[in-house]
Design brief:
Length: 472
Amino acid sequence: MTVLDVHPSDALRRIWGTRGSDRIHLAGDPGYDAARIAWNLAVDQRPAAVAQPQTVDEVSALVRAAAVTGLRVAPQSTGHNAGPLAERGLDDVVVLRTGGLNQVRVDAARGVVRVEGGAVWEPVVEAAAAHGCAVLHGSSPDVGVAGFTLGGGIGWYARKLGLAANSLVAAEVVIGDGSLVRADAEQNAPLFWALRGGGGSFGVVVALEFRMFPIASAYAGMMVWDLADAERVLREYAAWAPTAPDEVSASFRAMRLPPIPDIPEPLRGRRIAVLDGAVLGSDERAAEILAGFRSLRPEIDTFGRVPTTAVTRIHMDPEGGAPFASSSTVLEALPDAGIDAFWAEVGPDATTSLLLAELRQLGGAVGRPAKGGGVLSHLEGQYAVFAGGMAMTPQMGAQAHADAVKVTDALAPHATGTRYLNFTENAVDSRTAYGEERWLQLKGIRSAVDQHGAFAANHPVPRLYENGQPTA
């Protein structure tokens, strides 16, 4: 009997499992359920197998072995945005957990930090800070660096310095034939362009190199109001955000916090509005930029000078995994009618299961095409919207998703019609993030580096032809 006479996942274990049988898990194996869990605990992903390679050679061998057995490979670091992948079906997919590749190394002479493909942001931020520098990280310390960057990456320095994807200077990628290639501005330039915002369809990213910025601290924090007093704050934010100086990146959230010990006592079980963010400027300049909000007398105001290592936690994102359901959109503008619609769904008089509804400020450098940038060199629009709630049970998840969709539907008249896929946790048409010309280019690049369709992704880019037929 040959390996091809057995189930593909069993064949995969025979081919690749000799490298470490404890690092490949099939359904029914003792380690399968633990290995398949995504950060979003509401996502019940059940792939054909889960592999946990520890070296780049093992990644390459796994991609080749999967091809022999007719399985596809889905790279996954933390699984923050695993929902779309699971929705599309995983019967023929090996989830490749990259967490074993997590080393971080600073090259101070080049002003670059090299990050392996399974790392999360916190150790990268700390490594850069040790050299008096910052990187364009996300709003949570345990978000995977690779997934965040491949989707674009909006962080607390974005309006001044742009999307994280455009601070990438090189990537090392295992492509569809199992070979390792380096992509930068000079080598494999089309692939480098696609990786900066095009998602995970092009291979397994095993290392990334980022430009560091000489930033040792920021004026960052949050202001909090009771939700019953917060409509005036929302209207101030909507008037201020579109023309605010590039030095500031901020977010407004309406929140309904559960009464659980993880939440600080002054906020536990309360309905609040939060303005949070960071200013890259002097204390005096920051105070001037935030003066309008301070005049509204927040009951909590933590804005102040903090080291860059503290900025990763100002958003209070949950860490370590949580069950969540959500909806998102991007707004062209937020006129009075949009404010009214938003507040009707999430304000103090609304009946909703949502934990939060966020208006993330865009504009500034986020809204301008980055020189030499990737496929997602910028985002058009004034706000990215993210609404979501806890999904402790399937019923809670269905209600949270329905309530989140009510928010984005209410704002639909003011939407750009495009998507920011890092905030999109359900299966959608990925082309809506790019436009037709860039979409065609992405498909061509996918076809070149993955001729046989080796990879599955949360928000997939198809090859130009699938099963002999042109793709949409």
